[in-house]
Amino acid sequence: MNARGQAALVIQVPSEPQSVSFVATYLGDGSAKASSSSPDAVLITPTGSTVALSVPQTNVLRVPTTLVATITPASAGGTVTFSVGNVVVGSQAVAKGQASVEWTPQGAGAFTVSASYSGDRGTPRGTATNQVVVVAETRADSITVDPVGAAGAWVPGGSVTFMNGTSMALATSSTSNMPVQLAESGPCMLAGNRLTARSGSGSCTVTALTRSGNGFSGAANTYRVLLTPGWQTARLAAPASGVVNRGAVVKLGKPNLRTTAGQLVTWKVTAGKAQCAVVFTSDGTAKLKARKRGPCNIRATAPGVDGQWNRYAVYRAYVIR
């Protein structure tokens, strides 16, 4: 022990990864009693720490950007201090191998960004640097929203028409190559990039956004979706128009058949009542009975829902032979 009351011991580091516990014991003398320290554990790892710094190479004056440091091993603790030149812009504790701060450049030019890791028990300190450029001006971004399968891209500030029940995927892109975020307000549903109309009246507003980045300022476009009544469908059993043999009984639809809007489907012979007839079995199944040779036209209908669904009508033209 030296005159300052300090003692040091040089040990050989184990060759295998492990946790080593140290205890300092003082044997005492005429002026002080014997005592021992609390255990101090040191983690021996096969490699030291590595620090990786992620930051956009081109940044825009007074536009926030995120500095991200990744520490290996991911289990390490400690803190990372971020600096631009000689100016500290923030410190953040390491969590799950990463730490980040937001930096808003206040001057244009070339800068050195650094991330200094404090180290942790068993994980040594480290530093990473990156060279970045800050530009003073940005260009206006341009966003494209192009419905898949449609005739062309939507016009910013314009309107399009969707029928109730219509669903369409929206392909998006931007001149800046920044991600395009979509948002919707109104009686529509937006799941990812798929828009579905859920009403037959009113309108929805779709907004497409990009954040500033890659030398471009952020952009925002809006599009109005005008909603109109949609078409109902039903699971008919009636065969396609064509030839039906005389004497045949053909199934048209199940009992109490309803459309996708919940409307009851009814059947009617519109031409050729002498040649055919719509009959119903005891359970309500609708069938076509072919009586005589000649034309037979039938129609399945269901009422519309005001402001939501159009009237349903399907026709069949048969020839009885």
Low-confidence stretches: none
Span of the ends, CA to CA: 118 Å
CATH topology of the largest domain: Immunoglobulin-like
Question: Main β-sheet, in a few words?
Answer: 5 strands, mixed
Mean pLDDT: 90
Helix content percent band: under 10%
SS content category:
mainly beta
What portion of residues belong to β-strands? over 45%
What is the CATH-assigned architecture of the largest domain? Sandwich
Strand order of the largest sheet: 6-12-11-8-9
SSE blueprint:
Elements: E1 18-22, E2 25-26, E3 35-36, E4 40-44, E5 50-54, E6 58-60, E7 65-72, E8 79-84, E9 87-93, E10 98-103, E11 109-117, E12 126-135, E13 139-140, E14 143-147, E15 159-163, E16 167-174, E17 181-185, E18 188-191, E19 194-197, E20 203-210, E21 216-217, E22 219-228, E23 242-244, E24 249-253, E25 266-271, E26 276-280, E27 286-290, E28 294-302, E29 312-320
Parallel strand pairs: 6-12, 13-21, 15-22, 23-29
Antiparallel strand pairs: 1-4, 2-3, 5-7, 7-10, 8-9, 8-11, 11-12, 14-16, 16-19, 17-20, 18-19, 20-22, 24-27, 25-28, 26-27, 28-29
Your description of this structure?
The chain is mostly beta strands. The chain folds into 3 domains: about 50-135, Immunoglobulins (Immunoglobulin-like); about 140-230, Immunoglobulin-like (Sandwich); about 240-320, Immunoglobulin-like (Sandwich). It is built from no helices and 29 strands. The chain has strands at about 20, 25, 35, 40-45, 50-55, 60, 65-70, 80-85, 85-95, 100-105, 110-115, 125-135, 140, 145, 160-165, 165-175, 180-185, 190, 195, 205-210, 215, 220-230, 240-245, 250-255, 265-270, 275-280, 285-290, 295-300, 310-320. The strands form 9 sheets. The protein has a 5-stranded mixed beta sheet with strand order 6-12-11-8-9, with no helix packed on it. Strand 18 and strand 19 (about 195) form a beta hairpin. InterPro entries: Big_3_5 (IPR032109), Ig-like_fold (IPR013783). Pfam families: Big_3_5.
